[in-house]
Amino acid sequence: MNSQDQSPGHGAAGRRIAAIGLVAAAGLAVLAPAARAQDPQVAAPAATAAHDPLEGLNRASFKLGMGLDHVILAPIAHGYMAVAPRVVRNRVSAAIYNLGEPSTVVNLMLQGKPTRAMRSTARFVVNSTVGVAGLFDVAAKLNLPRRDADFGQTFGKWGVKPGAYVYVPVMGPLNVRDGVGRVLDIVTDPVSLYVGGLSTDFGKARTGLTIVDLRAATDPAFHALKDASDPYVTTRSAYAQYREAVVRQATGEAEDLPDFDAPPAPKP
Question: In the prediction, which pLDDT does 238 show?
Answer without folding.
Answer: 87
